[in-house]
Amino acid sequence: NQNLLINGTATIRVHKWPVQVSCTSDNRTVIQRRVLNGTPTEPFLESLDRYKFPFGNPSSNFWFGLYNMYDIATHGSPYSLQVKLTRRNGSTSILTYKRFRLLVSIN
To answer: Can you tell me the distance from the alpha carbon of 107 to that of 61, in angstroms, rounded to the nearest whole number?
Structure first.
């Protein structure tokens, strides 16, 4: 296995390069994490060009990058997408798409 899980983070291969990501306890790769404790350091108010590449820290505010998402979602077996929203009061909502794939290049 090319993935190495260490303390909730993993190193995966994307575009043949290692990428640090955060993982959930059920082995899902986190593609975006938004932590709202005080003033966020990554405002997530960026141009499309900025979203093409990863930014932030996998253990806090983080964006995986559109190029990375495209690469993993267009190769290999079908993927699922789970969206988990946690409100400030601690309640959560989860929506799962059983088959997720990207069809259009983001060049």
So the answer is: 25
| Distance separating alpha carbons of residues 63 and 57, to the nearest angstrom | 8
Beta bridge partners of 5: 10
Tokens of 107: 């060049």
- Residue 20 has which token pair? 């640090």
Going through the chain in order, the beta strands assigned E by DSSP cover 4-6, 9-14, 17-22, 32-33, 55-56, 62-63, 79-86, 92-100
> Greatest CA separation found in the chain?
41
pLDDT in tens, 42-69: 566 778 888 888 888 887 888 898 888 8
Q: Which two tokens stand for residue 100?
A: 């997720």
